[in-house]
Amino acid sequence: MIRTLFRSLEAVHGMIYFSPEAEQRYASAGLDRAGGYFASRAAALGAVGAEVVIATFYNFNPAIVRARIPQAWEKVSPERMLELRWEAADEALAKVLPDDLKEINELARRAAERSKDMLHGRPLFAAHAALPWPDEPRLQLFHAQTLLREFRGDGHLAALLRHNVTGIEALVLHVATGDYPADVLRKTRAWSEEQWAATVQDLQARGLVGEDQLLTEKGRELRQGIEDDTDHMAAPAYDVLSDQEKQRFVELAAPLSKAVVDAGMSPGRR
């Protein structure tokens, strides 16, 4: 149920990483697509260096981060990046979300506020949790899911660390489920074909990936353990909701995410 709750609203936040409204605004600040992504998501942390972004984003090639951060802060302040992100989210979501968001906003905000009680070990989440709530209902929903996403995301990194899985290994294991094409994850995270191939070979040697480049039974057990740990660490954010409210959350949120995906604003569950 925890994963269902998260996925039901995820596209309302996830669209910001594919939004032309965001890309145009970041370009106006002198940033390319990658620079806009790193700077906009990291802006809540302040003008941090590349090492902090590498640590909190986890699965990107450190080289692409170092090529964009901290140089981005020479072009635009973190405060302005946050403003640009809010503007882009508002413009994009205005196209697909209904005006009446009162009930889902109430449920999502309660879960997001509950997550603020558990800042420990979640640096990227904590930075976003310190931001003030916006007034616009669309942005309130976007912010609520941003908090729930980063809360879950920081927990996911802890799960990867617990299982001794590196960033590129996590990507290869994801691809090895057969649900996602290797080229997309490799290129968007800026890993070379040689780095990717070497990681595949290493995971094969460890018995986690087969010759067909799909997960072995051992690999499936590892990945399931990571996912279960992630769900376990994300669950407390939703414990403020009753079972009936959780079901209502999904009923209200899923059509909103579907509208975002159907509009071509997000690829949906990744």
Beta fraction of the residues?
A: under 5%
Number of helices: 15
Report, as a whole number of angstroms, the end-to-end distance: 18 Å
Low-confidence stretches: none
Radius of gyration: 18 Å
Reading the helices and strands in chain order gives: HHHHHHHHHHHHHHH
* Main sheet makeup: none
Offer a concise description of the structure.
With 270 residues, the chain is mainly alpha-helical.
Describe it.
- By secondary structure, the protein is an all-alpha fold.
- It contains 15 helices and no strands.
- The chain has helices spanning 2-14, 20-28, 33-42, 50-57, 62-66, 72-75, 78-93, 102-115, 123-129, 137-162, 167-175, 182-188, 193-205, 217-234, 243-262.
- Helix 1 (2-14) packs across helix 10 (137-162) and helix 10 (137-162) packs across helix 14.
- The longest helix has 26 residues, at 137-162.
- The chain is globular, with a radius of gyration of 18 Å.
- It comes from Lentzea pudingi.
- This is SalK.
- InterPro entries: HTH_67 (IPR054058).
Secondary-structure map:
Blueprint: H1 2-14, H2 20-28, H3 33-42, H4 50-57, H5 62-66, H6 72-75, H7 78-93, H8 102-115, H9 123-129, H10 137-162, H11 167-175, H12 182-188, H13 193-205, H14 217-234, H15 243-262
Helix pairs in contact: 1-10, 1-15, 2-3, 2-7, 3-7, 8-10, 8-15, 9-10, 10-14
